[in-house]
Specification:
single chain, alpha+beta, Arc Repressor Mutant, subunit A, Alpha-Beta Plaits, 3 domains, four-stranded antiparallel beta sheet, globular
Length: about 250
Amino acid sequence: MSGHSKWATTKHRKAAQDKKRSAQFSKLTRIITVAAKTGGDPNPDNNASLAAAIAKAKSYSLPKDKIEAAIAKAFGGLDGANYEDVIYEGYGPAGIALYVEALTDNRNRTAADVRAAFTRAGGNLGTSGSVAFQFERKGEITVERDDSLDEDEMMLLVADAGGEDMEAVEDGWLVYTASADIMAVKGALEAAGLPVAGAELVMEAVNTTVVTVADAKKVLRLVDALEESDDIQNVYHTMELTDEIAAALDE
């Protein structure tokens, strides 16, 4: 297992998004529609991007009918917007690097919103590549707890499936993979009978930085401000969420 808990970051990200479930559902359906359209196939078995988008949506409990509607939208001509992926990189409070993924139909609007959020937080929006080297793309698979397995048995199953790492969380496990292996590992875990709840590609900080609780709150306020935009899909940072910071956030 890794030297620090990646679950703390994942937990905060999902908790923040759960507070804005309606907006999060809108973001997830947009991802599915774009993945279906760009992949040119409504069948996730033949469209890897769509399969990953659906797996992510399921991990956030997006209803099946909304998933199906989002796929149909890609081929029904109901959405005239042309979305594109845009990455924003910069530094927030305490010099923490942030990597922001957006899916937008208006680059100027999104760039203005992102720049304003960084400025209000006392940070700086950087150029392309200015912080990307501090992150690496990984697969993250959520597996529900199976009381018939102990941690050693679970680790063996993960290794056999081709996973790189595993972490026990509140109600199950997080399995980490190389980005290219996520769907293969997910399939292998499912074939082994494990209850896989979802899967998504994430950006993991190569090295994390410990900051004070006060600075942590400033960084997370910036993260929340960015995530308020419908255009912003994911915000990743290099701040380590220590036990002390996690406890302060839960108060």
